[in-house]
Amino acid sequence: MAEYIPPLYQETLANGLNLLGVEYSRVPWVSLTFMVKRGAECDPPDKAGVADWTAEFLTLGTARRSQRQLAEDVEALGARLKARAGWDATYISLEGLAEDFTALMTLLAEVVQTPRFPEEEFPLLRERRRAELAQVLDDPRELATRYFQRLFFQGAPYGHAVRGEPESLEAITLVDLVAHYGREYTPEAATLVVVGMVPREQVVQEAGRTWGGWRGGGPASPTYTAAPSRTCPPGLYLLDRPELAQSEIRLGHLGVPRQHSDFFPLRLVNYILGEGGFSSRLMLRIRSELGLTYGIRSRFHFRRAPGPFTVATFTPAENTGRVVREIQAVMQEVKENGVTLQELTEAQSYYVGHFPLSLETPWALARQIATIDLHELGWDYLCRYCEQIKGVTLGAAAQAAKAHLQPEALVTLVVGPAAKISQDLGELAPVIQVGEI
C-alpha cells in the first residue's frame, strides 16, 4: 500500500506557518486547506458557536472584495470555498483547477489574512443560524444528540454544539467574532496544506509570497488536552417529550484522546461492537434478532482531549427499557470476552480495503494530512496505517475492550414520552427527569 501513497513534503515559513504538501498527479486539480489548530473547544462558556460563526464570516468578504465580489470571483474560477470549525481545529478550504493555482493561493490568503467582518451581514448570519437551530431542535434525533452532549460534559469545553446553542444566538456579537479571529488566527498555531497537480517548488514559492509576511494575531488559546474535571454522574436521565411515539436513546462514557496507544485496537473493537453496520454486535442483537430498532451505532469520538464514547439508537416507546438493557448486555459481553478471530479479521479487512478511498481525491488527502498534523501522528502515518490495522491481535483487542468499555458506568439519556416509559425505565435504575434545553 505504501507505494501508492505520494510523498509528503514539509516546510516552515519565516513567520512560523507550517506548510505541508503532496504532488498529486491523478487529476488536474488542487486543494488548499488552511487549518488553525483551535476550534469550538475555545468558545467562551456562554457563547457557543463563536469559532464556527467566525469561520463563516471569513467567507463574507475581505478588505478588497465585498461578499458578492468574493463569491463571483470564486465562481469565475470554478472553485469551491468552504469554512467550518470542528473540535480542536478550524478549516478554511479552497479548491479548483491546478492551472489556477496562483490565483487560488492568492485568494485563500486574502480570505484568511484580511477578512472584512461586514457589520451589515451579522444580523443575517444570526437569522440563518436561528432558523437552522429551530429546525434542528424540532428533530428528536438531533435534539437527543445535542442534549446528551450538554448533559454529559457539564459545561466542559466539549459540552456544546459546534454551531451554537439557543442561548448563544443572542449572546454572541460581532465583537466576539473579531476578538476570536484576532486571538486564534496566528501562523504559529496554523498549517497550510496543498495537495494537487502543482510542483513542490511552485507551492513553496507561492506560499512564501502570499503567506510569508502574515503576522496574524495571538497568542492563541492554550491547547485543550486534559480530560474534563467532571462529567455527568452515571445514571438514567429522561427528557419528557409526550408527543413522541418512540424514544431516542443516547448512552455513553468518557473515551480516550486520538493519540492514545490503544487507538487502533479500539477502532477495530468499536467496529465490531456497533460501527460495522449489519455485521456489528449491537445491530445483530437489537435489530436482526430482537427487531427493536431500525438502526444503532456506537462510536469513540477521538479528539485532542478525551472525547465521548456514545451509542445512539431509537425504538418504539414501549421497548425503551429493554433496548437499554440489551445495549448494556452487549457491551458487557465484549468487555468480558473480547471479540472473535473472524470478527477481528473482517474488521481489519474493512479498514484496509476502504483506506484507498481516503486518498482518492486531493481534498480527501488534504484532510488526512491536516489530521496527521493536528494530532502529531508522524509524517509516515499513511504508510504505516494498514500495517498497524493488520497488526492488532486478539489479545490487544481484548485488552482494549476491557480497559475502555464501561457498561457499568453509562450516562443514559432517553428522550421520549415519560408516561409510557418511566415505569419500565424505573426497573433498571432511578430515573432522573431533566428539563428542556
TrEMBL record:
Gene Ontology terms, MF aspect: metal ion binding
Residues in Peptidase M16 N-terminal domain copies: 30-162
Membrane spanning residue stretches: none
Gene3D superfamilies named among the record's database cross-references: Metalloenzyme, LuxS/M16 peptidase-like (3.30.830.10)
Ranges of residues in domain Peptidase M16 C-terminal: 172-349
InterPro entries: Metalloenz_LuxS/M16, MPP/UQCRC_Complex, Pept_M16_N, Peptidase_M16_C
Domain of life: Bacteria
Name of the featured protein: Insulinase family protein
Top-level taxonomy: Bacteria, Pseudomonadati, Thermodesulfobacteriota, Desulfobaccia, Desulfobaccales
